[in-house]
Amino acid sequence: MTNLTVNLPGLNLKNPIMPASGCFGFGKEYAQLYDLSQLGAIMIKATTAETRLGNPTPRVAETSSGMLNAIGLQNPGLEKVMASELPWLEQYDTSIIANVAGSQTEDYVEVARAISSAPNVHALELNISCPNVKQGGITFGTDPNIARALTRAVKDVSSVPVYVKLSPNVTDIVQLAKAVEEGGADGITMINTLLGMRLDEKTGRPVIANITGGLSGPAIKPVALRMVYEVRKHTDLPIIGMGGITDVTDVIDFLSAGANAVAVGTANFVNPFVCPEIIAALPEKLHDLGYESVEELVGRSHRL
Amino acid sequence: MTNLTVNLPGLNLKNPIMPASGCFGFGKEYAQLYDLSQLGAIMIKATTAETRLGNPTPRVAETSSGMLNAIGLQNPGLEKVMASELPWLEQYDTSIIANVAGSQTEDYVEVARAISSAPNVHALELNISCPNVKQGGITFGTDPNIARALTRAVKDVSSVPVYVKLSPNVTDIVQLAKAVEEGGADGITMINTLLGMRLDEKTGRPVIANITGGLSGPAIKPVALRMVYEVRKHTDLPIIGMGGITDVTDVIDFLSAGANAVAVGTANFVNPFVCPEIIAALPEKLHDLGYESVEELVGRSHRL
Amino acid sequence: MIRQEKMVVVSQQQIARNIFELIVKGDLVQDMQEPGQFVHIRVADSFEPLLRRPISIAEINREESQFTMIYRSEGRGTSLLAEKAVGATIDVLGPLGHGFDVDAAKAKAYLIGGGIGVPPLYQLAKELNAKGVETVHILGFESKEAVFYEEKFKALGETHIATVDGSHGTQGFVTHILNELPKDFDTYYSCGPTAMLEAVQWAYPEKQGFLSYEQRMGCGIGACFACVCRTTKSETDYIKVCSDGPVFPAGVVIV
Amino acid sequence: MIRQEKMVVVSQQQIARNIFELIVKGDLVQDMQEPGQFVHIRVADSFEPLLRRPISIAEINREESQFTMIYRSEGRGTSLLAEKAVGATIDVLGPLGHGFDVDAAKAKAYLIGGGIGVPPLYQLAKELNAKGVETVHILGFESKEAVFYEEKFKALGETHIATVDGSHGTQGFVTHILNELPKDFDTYYSCGPTAMLEAVQWAYPEKQGFLSYEQRMGCGIGACFACVCRTTKSETDYIKVCSDGPVFPAGVVIV
Ligand SMILES: Cc1cc2nc3c(=O)[nH]c(=O)nc-3n(C[C@H](O)[C@H](O)[C@H](O)COP(=O)(O)OP(=O)(O)OC[C@H]3O[C@@H](n4cnc5c(N)ncnc54)[C@H](O)[C@@H]3O)c2cc1C
Ligand SMILES: Cc1cc2nc3c(=O)[nH]c(=O)nc-3n(C[C@H](O)[C@H](O)[C@H](O)COP(=O)(O)OP(=O)(O)OC[C@H]3O[C@@H](n4cnc5c(N)ncnc54)[C@H](O)[C@@H]3O)c2cc1C
Ligand SMILES: Cc1cc2nc3c(=O)[nH]c(=O)nc-3n(C[C@H](O)[C@H](O)[C@H](O)COP(=O)(O)O)c2cc1C
Ligand SMILES: Cc1cc2nc3c(=O)[nH]c(=O)nc-3n(C[C@H](O)[C@H](O)[C@H](O)COP(=O)(O)O)c2cc1C
Ligand code: FES
Ligand code: FES
């Protein structure tokens, strides 16, 4: 029997596959389609201290093998997430990773403290990399000093392990990874979206109301994979890799490059069953490649 | 009659379309297919002081709507380019932009001084952004101070206007653009490739011998367009835009975002006639959009 | 229940300029609840184009397990859809969203559609007529060449056509026709460009109405927050076109 | 002259496991010079998959303006190619590169091919035979199911087959057969995996030989420097497989 389990700080995953934050809401919609207990974990939509309405529409645009989004962290706010979304998720036997966002350190700290105390939140994902909010967000993710300090502040109040989500929109991703490691991060999740733009061909106007948006989907996979590979060379922290994953082969690539687990974002929109399908395909794929467990395969590209 | 001409420092272009450096060699191969005098200009392959053998093969890999390359600046070296490639190009009525590369300032200066004196070289394109060479190259393109100093050094010796080619692999492209502007750049060309990677699905080995390569093609267009738009907001320098252009609509997008002219790279490999086809389609497209000249359309997204 | 199914193309026909009628067959039809729901279509096996395309359900044939879509072939996705021949399979996710409240109309209803907003009104008209509600159809198109289903609507009730260029029916917009028609109906239903929905809403402030909205979509099932609209119901909330809509009672959506 | 042409599919047939024979028609055929040249094929109208696929010319029929390709449907590009039906058009760039020197052989030639390296040897065999050169064909495949064109080669001369699993012909590699054969030929021609080309070259250091190489390609016409190999001719230069090759005299390419 192929062993799919992955053990990471706070997360004893039955398999390394989870939906990425923002692409799966709080699970309710996909629960109409399949049993969420199949999933290794669920990264829920970014939660902020207050209700956020997000950006005006249009919020998405299609690009070659990818899409842009500028949702702007719309979410019902900490209180409602704690009161209704998280309790609802308790019926499923899977780990919940809460994506925490804000526009200043205090916001992050407030959300982290509260949400990490929810009984079914197993880890936090610190979203210092959202390109679609005017204040904070991405600046936290591009300055190593700020990223380090924010990680430490959140780490100090969190009752569960803290994973920090890195932005690809930086000159040196390794430097950021090192910074959050110094700040006490228990793990890294990467990558968030690349900043991009699309124009309406008739008018020349940006298609996305926010002007720019975050690029995701297969188009960004080569960049994501390169970054995971580079960061793995420089840290032993667990990495949850993502960016353009659409099938089991993509998963193998990220694990090979050094990710310990992976998240699937945009592909859920194209094929809502993509996560369970990948989970089902994984044992045979590992077996064909000559591996008996996920953990054996992790990082193989570095051992050649 | 729609006016396609574009006048930029050193470059009086009959139209704004030119092949991008490294995707067109020194023109000989495409000259078998069509008359190069149709082109607005030609950006020739990077030239270094000495002959460069470049990287081992495989040097290219396909990705979703894109490709990776790690040619490693293979070129016959300054002497041969001056002695045979450039003189051969004199038969064509088009502007030549010489792409200058090196691994230290002295190399750049040497090549720039010599090649800018060739009778048919109208401008230099300073390649401070090649991701595929171990030394120099990209570090020049990611540190604003180094970029500024290099630009100044080259500017001092060049007999023709100097355009600096920016790397997208940076946190803040505007900062780099400002730096080269301060260094005396006459214009900016952007973007070079995004650093990426692909793994062999069976072995987990990087497909490209150099491990990482530069991502180009339609996949990167949203990133390129966003960067051109941002840089245009902060400088009046001429911009030659590129990244994923495959047809006349893409050209309109880059011009709208603020590019004064555009270059076509990877698309030449897919459709070797792409440049003349775009040039032929441009007048009608401009007309349909209600413009009588290229220069009228440039930057329209900023005027909405 | 929402299903993802490879449905089989039974018929594909061009019925007006750039307008295609596509009939597909599969089990998913049995779950269709209301006229005005839509499906989300994956047009290619590859990830290019990436996103699914939302298309309304235009007619439901439960006995044959078939349903009809009418769409404009315009961009990359719909052009690929137009290439699907009889026998080909299409990846359909649906039925999605909430449609028109058929029970709301009492005696007489106005069905007001514009362009590719017309299709869902056809199944609606059929169901209303089946319930004994008289339907009047006011349909707007660009020009004569773009008109479709005129005879089919006529077979169900009084039908007025407006074309922007006047090449068929009344010249102008549906509102030009509405101005001339009596207000002797109890309920209106509308689907079309947002500007048209706004105009219709303004025209009948006192009537009960239902409007079907469009937004750019990601997931199509309510998970990604791409397709939201502001709502009069709450200052601190949005409604999602894909899962709360696409049909909302008049007065609910702020555009 | 190199042309880009929308060529029409005349025939598409599976002839072995995952192996397809594709015949297309168009003017470009008239420019084909030598066996061993190749074409560069765009398999989709979209940019996904992005790059063209290099495929050898397996047989040329100038009268009918047709040529044959034989390819293994494996990855994304070749799978799409296998879907092209009779009547469809395919975007072909070619003819490209330099092929086998047919005039080099005097009386007897060995044609040594492995897997999808076998196809270009077929046109070569035909041309050599037409010139009165006796050809012996030594062809290696994975297994019985992968073997193709055996009868066609037999019709042109002595033909030996090796399969890795021994399910047909000699068990092992082409070199196992070569070891048993006399060295009474004047020229050899070979196309196949690089390891095979190396082995063949080692086996006949004293003979005149021509080898066809593979490399990952970008442009296919010599402009991008993707497909280079080091050469014994110069320490400071590369040769390009696409435009200087794919066929080189033995001893020229360093692998
Ligand atoms: C609930 C709903 C029902 C619809 N019903 C129909 C119908 O029955 N018939 C019909 O012809 N059209 C209908 N549309 C509009 C249809 O979805 C778009 O015309 C179609 O998605 C455009 O795709 P494309 O490939 O032609 O264009 P592209 O330009 O390639 O599309 C690019 C992206 O923009 C999105 N997009 C473009 N236009 C629209 C639009 N108007 N609304 C939403 N997304 C858009 C596409 O889905 C895609 O993600 C409906 C839209 C919605 C939201
Ligand atoms: C000069 C030349 C002649 C060839 N002739 C034939 C032939 O007659 N019949 C045949 O079946 N094959 C031939 N090949 C190999 C053929 O080009 C590859 O099998 C094919 O490109 C793989 O594409 P894919 O879509 O199946 O694979 P994918 O894995 O989707 O290909 C991904 C990328 O890698 C490239 N690639 C993968 N394998 C190879 C390879 N072996 N050589 C070069 N590029 C590769 C592809 O072109 C593409 O750019 C030839 C190759 C060369 C260089
Ligand atoms: C519509 C959408 C919304 C997203 N929202 C969030 C978010 O709230 N928090 C976050 O950390 N990442 C968010 N992301 C980024 C994804 O989690 C993921 O990092 C990125 O999309 C790359 O993965 P993919 O290519 O598989 O989509 C969002 C992405 C999309 C497409
Ligand atoms: C095969 C290849 C070789 C390249 N060589 C060079 C080069 O020598 N100098 C340079 O400045 N850019 C080089 N580039 C980058 C292109 O000029 C261009 O900036 C980039 O590919 C983005 O444009 P595209 O998406 O249209 O290809 C190369 C790109 C490719 C694909
Ligand atoms: S499209 Fe995703 S929430 Fe509506
Ligand atoms: S493939 Fe471009 S030089 Fe050979």
From TrEMBL, chains A, B:
It catalyses: (S)-dihydroorotate + A = orotate + AH2; (S)-dihydroorotate + NAD(+) = orotate + NADH + H(+). One of its GO terms (biological process) is 'de novo' pyrimidine nucleobase biosynthetic process. The active site is at residue 130. Substrate binds at residues 45, 69-73, 127, 192-193. Its cofactor is FMN. Its EC number is 1.3.-.-. Residues 4-286 form the Dihydroorotate dehydrogenase catalytic domain. One of its GO terms (cellular component) is cytoplasm. Binds 1 FMN per subunit. The keyword Cytoplasm applies. Signal peptide: none annotated. It is found in: Cytoplasm. Heterotetramer of 2 PyrK and 2 PyrD type B subunits. HAMAP family: DHO_dh_type1 (MF_00224). Belongs to the dihydroorotate dehydrogenase family. Type 1 subfamily. This is Dihydroorotate dehydrogenase. The gene is pyrD.
UniProtKB/TrEMBL annotation, chains C, D:
It comes from the Bacteria. CDD domains: DHOD_e_trans. FAD binds at residues 53-56, 70-72, 77-78. The keyword Transport applies. It holds the Pfam family DHODB_Fe-S_bind. Heterotetramer of 2 PyrK and 2 PyrD type B subunits. NCBIfam families: PRK00054.1-2, PRK00054.1-4. Responsible for channeling the electrons from the oxidation of dihydroorotate from the FMN redox center in the PyrD type B subunit to the ultimate electron acceptor NAD(+). This is Dihydroorotate dehydrogenase B (NAD(+)), electron transfer subunit. One of its GO terms (molecular function) is metal ion binding. GO terms for biological process: 'de novo' UMP biosynthetic process. Keywords: 2Fe-2S, Electron transport, FAD, Flavoprotein, Iron, Iron-sulfur, Metal-binding, Pyrimidine biosynthesis, Transport. Residues 2-102 form the FAD-binding FR-type domain. Pathway: Pyrimidine metabolism; UMP biosynthesis via de novo pathway; orotate from (S)-dihydroorotate (NAD(+) route): step 1/1. [2Fe-2S] cluster binds at residues 219, 224, 227, 242. Its cofactor is [2Fe-2S] cluster; FAD. Belongs to the PyrK family. InterPro entries: Cyt_c3_hydrogenase_gsu (IPR012165), Dihydroorotate_DH_ele_sf (IPR037117), Dihydroorotate_DH_Fe-S-bd (IPR019480), Dihydroorotate_DHASE_ETsu (IPR023455), FAD-bd_FR_type (IPR017927), FNR_nucleotide-bd (IPR039261), OxRdtase_FAD/NAD-bd (IPR001433), PyrK_electron_transfer (IPR050353). The keyword Iron-sulfur applies. PANTHER family: DIHYDROOROTATE DEHYDROGENASE B (NAD(+)), ELECTRON TRANSFER SUBUNIT, DIHYDROOROTATE DEHYDROGENASE B (NAD(+)), ELECTRON TRANSFER SUBUNIT-RELATED. Binds 1 [2Fe-2S] cluster per subunit. Binds 1 FAD per subunit.
